[in-house]
């Protein structure tokens, strides 16, 4: 039922082939293949235990797969560490908010800008007054609607704002692929709605792989959806195709989508 | 004027005036004590760069102080015996010896850092402690340079064509100048891009990697820079005490340096200076006070210091500088 | 070097290895379960040694003195856990380092006040004062006894951890602290128990070290740093790793001390060779540690 992968003609930003990751005897990723087309918003859904977290670990470079390959921007990155992939333009957000709590909101984003501004073996100039870091950071904050909170400590942000900052940091390096790990996690309805709007505004400008539990958000936003079950891609297709796919309904959506 | 700025000015004034006051009081001893405080402040500041700013709890920092001191000691032995070292004539020129001490300490820090930084947290603490112990044993094995007993130096390193450093007051001011220069440079560094990477890695190392920073490389650089400054402090220590021995590398010295940093306030540059002054002054005067209560009691003052440390960690984590400078994040 | 000499050194290495294991087992469990780095673990070793010396003076019976000393050291450990360290489980490692550094200063100074700065040399019990003939090797009975006790305690420890309910909790706690807390176990009691057990084992090592080494202030830290090397090599939090690391370090250190000075005498004059060889022998285990870490950063048997 692996329809989407071979059928796509547009260039793939990310291509995963036959990926396998075992923990002890248990295969958390079990021969998974997946392609994210440049420019699309591709959503990844699956029941708990389907292997989403393990997959993200392997895509971002924090986990090494046992078999299979990950290609990013036409390069085999299977064995590259996380920071090298990030430098190539693979940006990610974390399911559990991961910020620099003792830095201001602006400096959190400036750190992300700095990551893409060449090496940091610069010992003398005050980075806080460096407009090459500050200006792009401000621009990104503007984009996610956090400008008013620029000088607040990251640790003092409300949950929804922290999620926005998380996204801003991922956006700051003009990534070729944005890997969003449950950006709505822990958000209330209002915060979720704001995040959906934000993601919608990003659509088309950046390639996104969105892992999310919130079905309404996924079906509202995604160009294509891949359903992950027991470490494999059960189906890939447009929201409409996924909604009507009997195997998906059987395995996952059940009564919820009916 | 802000409170921290005022406190810094007071500290600088005390530093500048101490020899004058000591001379007026007829207590030259205070100049030597002051010199020791400045030297340990330098070492503590260097530790704080990796501990307070980089989040690397190194329990082996005294080893780099010791390595720096041994550079002075080894060169002294060769110079006084008129024997060449590595085919070269041993120099006593401070302008060569002191940078050399920093360089050798930095060189020692490269392999130690490379291996230690493969780990974080508790293993990092244990490994840095173990490597320091290894260097300690290395120095005790250097029989030609005193072995267990160390080497007493007859005189300080010299400036070209000038015996000025032999004078305690001159040496004090030179040490003060070096400390101030290092503090200024460190102040720039922690605010630079490099410093941000370091502080970011302390805050959230995983996030730094996800942003694309090769974090270990920056941490290693900081580790080596800190070792170089510690090596310089070691060279000054050897000159201040006119002695070089393995006890400079003893594990408890590394503990003392951590105490200075935390006591003064880690993650600040003035903190370690205050901490070094506080610990050395306590060490100097608490035993005397205890001896007043009962003669001979003072030699056991650490039985007081130990529990005080524990309470300090429990209830006063911000350190003396946090208290002096007032509330600030 | 003839085989008898090598056999003797190998036995010495084993004996040192089991001593290190007694130290490392407690330390690694305390770290694995409580996430506490306890620098004062070496102090329990010292306390065990001094108390044995003191009780030998009272009872005039070594075994009795040893048992009393071990029990009392476990109690001292319990007291330390209750009064001082309990507040530090949730603190970061730097706080723990500083606090337990403070404890070291306290215990060392206390020992110096009570027993003075001069090392005490303990006589082995009369029954173990001689040598035993092992296939032609005259080996000191006391060392053989230490080896035997060490192996027996290691076995008991294994039984405790592998076969009992407390052991099950200890194992679970070492790999997943939160899970044990979620089980509704009285975690504080478990922690206290493990801490006292670790202190007792360290005390036992110290008590047995008395007749072999000098009892003196500072002995605890010397072995503590070796224990750290053992744990880092073995894999932190793992009792199996502690055993492997302890035997490895015991062997390498002992054989290094036995052979390296002789090796250096081949190309240095005797005095210089003894110095350089001794230093090289002291450094051997750190080189070993560096090698292991370069290949396996998490040690030989990483826990969890």
From TrEMBL, chain B:
Q: How does it sit in the membrane?
A: Multi-pass membrane protein
Its subcellular locations are:
Cell membrane
What residue intervals traverse the membrane?
33-51, 58-76, 96-117, 124-145, 170-190, 220-245, 257-282, 303-324
Q: Which InterPro entries match?
A: ABC_transp_permease, LivM-like
Which Pfam family name is an example for this entry? Answer: BPD_transp_2
Which UniProt keywords are present, listed alphabetically?
Cell membrane, Membrane, Transmembrane, Transmembrane helix
Under which name does UniProt file this protein?
Answer: Branched-chain amino acid ABC transporter permease
Please tell me the species this chain comes from: Azospirillum oleiclasticum
TrEMBL record, chain C:
Q: Which domain of life is it from?
A: Bacteria
For the keyword Membrane, the answer is: yes
Q: How does it sit in the membrane?
A: Multi-pass membrane protein
- Location (main, coarse): membrane
Q: Which UniProt keywords apply?
A: Amino-acid transport, Cell membrane, Membrane, Transmembrane, Transmembrane helix, Transport
Name the InterPro entries for this protein: ABC_transp_permease (IPR001851), BCAA_transport_permease (IPR052157)
A Pfam family the protein falls into:
BPD_transp_2
Q: Kindly list the residue ranges recorded as spanning the membrane.
A: 12-32, 39-56, 62-85, 97-115, 141-161, 189-217, 223-250, 271-295
- State its location(s): Cell membrane
Homology family: Belongs to the binding-protein-dependent transport system permease family. LivHM subfamily.
Q: What PANTHER family does the database record attribute to this sequence? A: ABC TRANSPORTER ATP-BINDING PROTEIN, BRANCHED-CHAIN AMINO ACID TRANSPORT SYSTEM PERMEASE PROTEIN LIVH
Return the protein name: Branched-chain amino acid ABC transporter permease
Q: What is the lineage of its organism?
A: Bacteria, Pseudomonadati, Pseudomonadota, Alphaproteobacteria, Rhodospirillales
């Amino acid at each position: 039922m692996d329809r989407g992968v071979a059928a796509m003609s547009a260039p793939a930003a990310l291509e995963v082939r036959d990926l396998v990751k075992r923990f002890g005897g248990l295969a958390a990723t079990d021969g998974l293949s997946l392609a994210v087309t440049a420019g699309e918003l591709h959503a990844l859904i699956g029941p708990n235990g389907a292997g989403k977290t393990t997959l993200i670990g392997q895509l971002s470079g924090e986990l090494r797969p046992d078999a299979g390959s990950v290609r990013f921007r036409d390069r085999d990155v299977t064995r590259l560490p996380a920071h090298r992939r990030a430098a190539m333009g693979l940006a990610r957000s974390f399911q559990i908010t991961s910020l620099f709590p003792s830095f201001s909101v602006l400096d959190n984003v400036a750190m992300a800008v700095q990551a893409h501004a060449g090496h940091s073996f610069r010992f003398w100039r005050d980075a806080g007054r460096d407009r090459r870091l500050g200006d792009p950071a401000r621009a990104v904050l503007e984009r996610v609607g956090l400008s008013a909170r620029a000088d607040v400590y990251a640790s003092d942000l409300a949950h929804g704002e922290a999620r926005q900052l998380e996204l801003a940091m991922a956006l700051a390096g003009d990534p070729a692929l944005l890997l969003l790990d449950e950006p709505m996690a822990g958000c209330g309805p209002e915060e979720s709605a704001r995040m959906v709007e934000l993601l919608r505004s990003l659509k088309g400008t950046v390639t996104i792989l969105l892992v999310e539990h919130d079905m309404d958000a996924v079906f509202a936003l995604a160009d294509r959806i891949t359903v992950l079950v027991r470490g494999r891609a059960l189906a890939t297709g447009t929201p409409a195709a996924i909604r009507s796919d009997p195997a998906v309904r059987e395995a996952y959506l059940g009564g919820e989508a009916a | 004027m802000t409170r921290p700025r005022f406190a810094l000015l007071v500290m600088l004034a005390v530093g500048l005036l101490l020899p004058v006051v000591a001379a007026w009081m007829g207590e030259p001893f205070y100049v030597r004590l002051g010199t020791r405080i400045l030297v340990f402040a330098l070492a503590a500041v260097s530790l704080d760069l990796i501990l307070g700013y980089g989040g690397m709890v190194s329990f082996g920092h005294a080893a780099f102080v010791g390595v720096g001191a041994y550079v002075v000691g080894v060169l002294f032995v060769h110079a006084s015996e008129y024997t060449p070292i590595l085919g070269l004539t041993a120099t006593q020129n401070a302008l060569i010896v002191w940078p050399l001490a920093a360089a050798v300490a930095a060189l020692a820090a490269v392999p130690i850092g490379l291996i230690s930084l493969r780990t974080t947290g508790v293993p990092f603490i244990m490994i840095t402690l173990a490597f320091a112990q290894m260097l300690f044993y290395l120095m005790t094995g250097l029989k030609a340079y005193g072995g267990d007993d160390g080497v007493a130096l007859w005189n300080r390193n010299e400036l070209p064509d000038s015996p000025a450093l032999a004078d305690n007051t001159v040496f004090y001011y030179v040490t003060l100048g070096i400390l101030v220069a290092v503090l200024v440079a460190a102040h720039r560094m922690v605010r630079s891009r490099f410093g941000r990477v370091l502080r970011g890695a302390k805050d959230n190392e995983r996030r730094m990697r996800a942003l694309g920073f090769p974090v270990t490389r920056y941490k290693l650089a900081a580790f080596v820079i800190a070792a170089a400054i510690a090596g310089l402090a070691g060279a000054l220590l050897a000159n201040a005490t006119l002695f070089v021995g393995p006890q400079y590398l003893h594990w408890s010295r590394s503990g003392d340096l951590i105490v200075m940093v935390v006591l003064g306030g880690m993650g600040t540059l003035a903190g370690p200076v205050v901490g070094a002054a506080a610990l050395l002054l306590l060490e100097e005067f608490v035993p005397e006070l205890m001896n007043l209560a009962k003669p001979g009691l003072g030699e056991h003052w650490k039985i007081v210091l130990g529990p005080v440390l524990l309470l300090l960690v429990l209830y006063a984590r911000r350190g003396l500088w946090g208290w002096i400078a007032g509330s600030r994040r | 070097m003839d085989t008898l000499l090598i056999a003797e050194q190998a036995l010495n290495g084993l004996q040192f290895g089991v001593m290190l294991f007694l130290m490392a087992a407690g330390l690694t469990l305390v770290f694995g379960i409580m996430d506490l780095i306890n620098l004062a673990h070496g102090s329990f070793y010292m306390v065990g040694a001094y108390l044995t010396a003191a009780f030998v003076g009272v009872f005039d019976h070594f075994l009795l003195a040893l048992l009393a000393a071990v029990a009392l050291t476990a109690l001292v450990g319990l007291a330390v856990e209750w009064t001082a360290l309990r507040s530090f489980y949730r603190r970061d490692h730097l706080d723990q380092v500083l606090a337990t550094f403070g404890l070291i200063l306290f215990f060392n100074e206390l020992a110096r006040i009570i027993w003075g700065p001069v090392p005490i040399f303990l006589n082995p019990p009369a029954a173990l004062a001689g040598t035993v003939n092992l296939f032609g090797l005259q080996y000191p009975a006391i060392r053989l006894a230490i080896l035997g006790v060490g192996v027996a305690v290691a076995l008991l420890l294994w039984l405790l951890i592998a076969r009992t309910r407390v052991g099950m909790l200890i194992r679970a706690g070492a790999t997943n602290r939160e899970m044990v807390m979620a089980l509704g176990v009285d975690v504080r009691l478990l922690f206290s128990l493990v801490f006292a057990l670790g202190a007792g084992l360290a005390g036992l090592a110290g008590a047995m070290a008395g007749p072999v080494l000098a009892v003196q202030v500072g002995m605890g830290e010397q072995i503590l740093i070796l224990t750290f090397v053992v744990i880092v090599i073995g894999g932190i939090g793992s009792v199996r790793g502690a055993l492997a690391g302890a035997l490895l370090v015991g062997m390498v250190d002992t054989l290094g001390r036995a052979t390296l000075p002789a090796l250096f005498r081949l190309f240095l004059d005797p005095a210089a060779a003894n110095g350089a060889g001794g230093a090289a022998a002291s450094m051997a285990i750190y080189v070993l540690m560096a090698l292991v870490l370069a290949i396996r950063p998490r040690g030989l048997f990483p826990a969890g």
